[in-house]
């Protein structure tokens, strides 16, 4: 786990002169920044040895100058967030002369910035820690190779597949709670797959749940369900002929999202159910469905595949036709949106 790498570096007092952190898991990156910042604030509580550069407007020479500056008591931490060095430049082909000149000036500035960062990373100040934070990287770029040679690169990737379950169990344990694998899977299905969002929901669960165990009932009681969760349950009621509960769930989900977003989720779900029903008709399995429909997570695919057993492909195809008519009415102001969606479920 990437956060454990940073903790080990801190425990060993082995911080590199240059860090490059990259990846999609922004929440964990911010957690790691807080740990790193706390280490430097312990040496100088005034914060004079910590300098943060954020946004896209900071200059390379300012970052490098800060990294070369010595602190009064100990080393300094310099954070260059939203580091754009690895972002691909847009093609200027087909642009006007004035815009091409502007592009040319921009490229020359970028080249100067690249040189400044490269020069520094080839001989960094060993007393300080310069941290670059980027969403993406290009491992073929010279700066990446220089940081790999003279510093340390850590990827903050989001969990994949079953690793999400392990992440939930581990995060619950960090809050003094137990969470079974089954409860973790329910939690992910209920709340989604964002580390920042899930961490906040786990904080609530740790305060709410009685005893050491977090249960599905606790999750239902205090966690906000993602709209897709409610849509799934709504269609499950609809498929079973429970019209009243289905309409109540529609009202609930419309309170969370704009009606066109809700309609889009309904259409996507019905389309996936139709794909699953067709795979079933050919005696295919969940893996065949995932490949045909492009569903990436086995958990979601398994739920949809099981739910599709309630429908015939003919019924779902008819539902898709109803969706097309509803879309036309929604976009042409052909009635109250909630009423139109209710009629869609009643057909």
Q: Unreliable stretches, pLDDT < 50, 5 or more residues? A: 90-106
Mean pLDDT: 86
Q: How many structural domains are formed by the residues?
A: 3
- The coarse overall form would be elongated
Main sheet: which strands, in order across? 2-3-4-1-5
Q: Structural class of the secondary elements?
A: alpha/beta
CATH topology of the largest domain: Rossmann fold
Q: Count of helical segments?
A: 16
**Can you say what the CATH homologous superfamily of the largest domain is?**
P-loop containing nucleotide triphosphate hydrolases
Q: H/E order of the elements?
A: HEHEHEHEHEHHHHHHHHHHH
User: What gap, in angstroms, lies between the N and C termini?
Assistant: 49 Å
Radius of gyration: 26 Å
CATH architecture of the largest domain: 3-Layer(aba) Sandwich
Total strands: the figure is 5
Fraction of residues in helices?
55-70%
The top level CATH class name of the largest domain: Alpha Beta
Characterize the main sheet: 5 strands, parallel
The fraction of residues in strands falls at 5-15%
């Amino acid at each position: 786990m990437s956060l454990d790498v940073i903790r080990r570096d801190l425990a060993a007092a082995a911080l590199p002169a240059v860090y490059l952190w990259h990846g999609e898991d922004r929440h964990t990156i911010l957690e790691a920044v807080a740990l790193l910042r706390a280490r430097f604030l312990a040496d100088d509580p005034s914060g004079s040895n910590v300098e943060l550069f954020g946004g896209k407007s900071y200059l390379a020479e300012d970052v490098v100058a800060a990294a070369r500056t010595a602190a009064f008591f100990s080393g300094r931490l310099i954070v260059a967030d939203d580091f754009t060095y690895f972002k691909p430049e847009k093609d200027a082909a087909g642009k006007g002369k004035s815009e091409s000149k502007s592009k040319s000036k921009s490229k020359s500035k970028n080249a100067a910035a690249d040189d400044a960062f490269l020069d520094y990373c080839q001989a960094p100040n060993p007393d300080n820690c310069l941290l670059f934070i980027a969403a993406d990287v290009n491992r073929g770029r010279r700066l990446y190779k220089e940081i790999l040679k003279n510093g340390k690169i850590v990827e903050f990737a989001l969990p994949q597949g079953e690793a999400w379950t392990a992440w939930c169990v581990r995060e619950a344990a960090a809050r003094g709670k137990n969470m079974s694998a089954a409860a973790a899977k329910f939690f992910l299905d209920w709340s989604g797959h964002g580390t920042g969002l899930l961490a906040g929901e786990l904080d609530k669960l740790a305060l709410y749940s009685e005893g050491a165990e977090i249960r599905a009932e606790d999750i239902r009681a205090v966690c906000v369900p993602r709209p897709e969760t409610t849509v799934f349950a709504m269609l499950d009621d609809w498929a079973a002929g429970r019209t009243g509960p289905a309409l109540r769930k529609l009202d609930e989900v419309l309170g969370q999202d704009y009606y066109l977003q809700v309609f889009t989720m309904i259409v996507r779900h019905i389309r996936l159910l139709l794909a699953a029903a067709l795979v079933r008709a050919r005696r295919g399995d969940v893996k065949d469905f995932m490949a045909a429909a492009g569903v990436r997570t086995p958990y979601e695919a398994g739920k949809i595949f099981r739910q599709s057993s309630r429908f015939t492909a003919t019924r779902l195809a008819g539902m898709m036709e109803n969706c097309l008519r509803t879309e036309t009415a929604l976009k042409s102001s052909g009635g109250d949106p909630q009423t139109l969606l209710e009629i869609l479920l009643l057909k």
